[in-house]
Amino acid sequence: MTGSAFVSTRAGAPAVSLSEAIARGLAPDGGLYVPARLPSVDPAACTGLTRLPDIARRALGGFFAGDRLQPALGEIADAALDLPAPNSRVAACTDPLYALELFHGPTAAFKDFGARFLAECLQRLESPRPPQTLRESRGPLTILVATSGDTGGAVAAAFHRRPWVRVVILYPKGLVSPRQEQQLTCWGDNVVSLRVDGTFDDCQRLVKEAFVDAGLSATHRFSSANSINIGRLLPQTVYYAGSSLDIERRTGFRASYVIPAGNLGNAFAAVWARALGFPIGRIVLAHNANRTVPDYLQTGLWRPRPSIATLASAMDVGNPSNMERLRALYPELGDLRNQVSADSVDDATIRHRIREDYMQYGREWCPHTATAAEVYHRLPADERRDRPWVVVATAHPAKFNEIVEPLLGKVLDVPDSLAKLLQLPRVFLDVSPTLGALAAALE
Ligand SMILES: *Cc1c(COP(=O)(O)O)cnc(C)c1O
Fold first, then answer.
1. Which atom of ligand 1 is nearest to the CA of 369?
2. Residue with CA closest to ligand 1 atom 2
3. How many CB atoms sit inside 10 A of residue 250's CB?
4. I need a surface site. Which of 66, 312, 324, 363 has the fewest CB within 10 A?
5. CATH architecture of the region 78-106+231-413
6. Is the pLDDT of residue 400 over 60?
């Protein structure tokens, strides 16, 4: 291999190129791909840049070096990352508090960045050439996504109407919010939405069973687009690079972040951005009642557990997969504790924080963002006063209107992109939670 090498966190799989790591998603030993050596970036080369695609060219250049995708990095970044991600000052707060708004994409949550970047990468890897292997002759790639909410919509939006790929979304009947369901079912064309008579765990099990079923994989080429794919993580480091440079420009100080966390993909991207050299101070993880990570940092015992349903449902994760990347980067617990801290917020406090910050600051948070706002308020007063803090706003509150509106006593404005999706008709198939039913729906 000539370019950067990517290795598994479990060290039991051969090193691969970036393209291969993106195409595979999971390493064959069950681990997650990470660069063998974190490339070096000169953050000074990004000074003065404000557009994310321009920052991406520099911040991600080392990851793409020597790869088949390297010549396309600029194009990929232009197509995927030309979205606003402003640091908006919380003006009513006397301390230097900002919100990094990551909800200006087509499905109004940060997952748009990763899904769009992955789609652009995969499109170039699938490139229009005649099938070269038996596997490729089996027709378009089928991306299977089990979703409990935001991922399915972001992936559908990113891959919609791309002729080389089909997206099959599995979501649990009655367990996603009405507006989330709308975003999972409004696409048509190459997107198939399956409403599964079961739980999110059933959806995930079905996807896993399909991947290993010999019969199905003889007739379909399956791939996944879940958040462990390095093609979703890389673009997320770009908005932290951009945000931290902007804060440094505006205040003269490093930005510290409070990040709503579930699978830790978003938070890990911030850790990478700091390790690459961008001006980032503290990184604090805000979890909901799923306390696996805060408990681990406190006790040193890694105890994954079944997830608990909360108001911040996109963070209902009991066994966060990207922890494996964090521990690969900082194997010593003491080092890890120096790099990140974490806290947990229960549903009653999420509700309280949504109301409180609306009254105090006039800010409308989604339930996920509210966990981060709460953890920010728990910081010592001098820390909040003496350095700029950024609460990462991972979704637009209007996506969760049935939770937020009764708390604020008002109807939320709906961003244009979301409003457009809400008008489209819903199309879905009802399936029972069995592999047979999934196989029939794939035909
Ligand atoms: C997915 C999601 C999260 C959690 O992000 P991770 O990368 O899984 O930690 C937080 N907020 C929202 C709105 C999400 O959709």
1. 11
2. 314
3. 14
4. 66
5. 3-Layer(aba) Sandwich (3.40)
6. yes
